[in-house]
Amino acid sequence: MTEPIIAPQSHTTQARSLAKTFSWRALASIDTFILGLIVTGSMTFAGSIASLEVLTKLILYYLHERAWARVVWGVKPMEDVL
């Protein structure tokens, strides 16, 4: 018998997902700004690009993280880890 792919509940908290969302967003926005600066040569335009993508990427990453938190595939039970 195969084990289920979707967990009935997540083993991670929403607060953890939110913290990961904001820390990832900071790193990714810096990357976007640097790439925008390299491509355009303009700090103003690079800043505009980085600013515009912040909100949408925050929401998308959070939803993606919460979806993956429910997937049991590749997660070992705690008794296997200890």
Walkthrough of the structure:
The protein is mainly alpha-helical and 82 residues long. The protein has one domain (14-71). It is built from three helices and no strands. The chain has helices at residues 14-40, 43-69, 78-81. Helix 1 (14-40) runs antiparallel to helix 2 (43-69).
Brief summary of the model shown:
By secondary structure, the chain is mainly α. Helix content is 71%, strand content 0%.
Secondary-structure map:
Elements: H1 14-40, H2 43-69, H3 78-81
Helix pairs in contact: 1-2
CA(first)-CA(last) distance? 25 Å
Strand content: under 5%
Q: Please work out how many helical segments DSSP would assign.
A: 3
Q: Which overall shape is indicated by the principal axes computed on the Cα atoms?
A: elongated
Summing up helix and strand content along with how strands pair, one would put the structural category as: mainly alpha
Radius of gyration (CA) equals 18 Å
Order of helices and strands: HHH
Helix fraction bin = over 70%
Give the count of structural domains.
1
Unreliable segments (pLDDT under 50, ≥5 consecutive)? none
Number of strands: 0
The profile of the biggest β sheet is: none
Overall pLDDT level: 84
Which descriptors would you attach to this protein?
mainly alpha; elongated; 82 residues; single chain
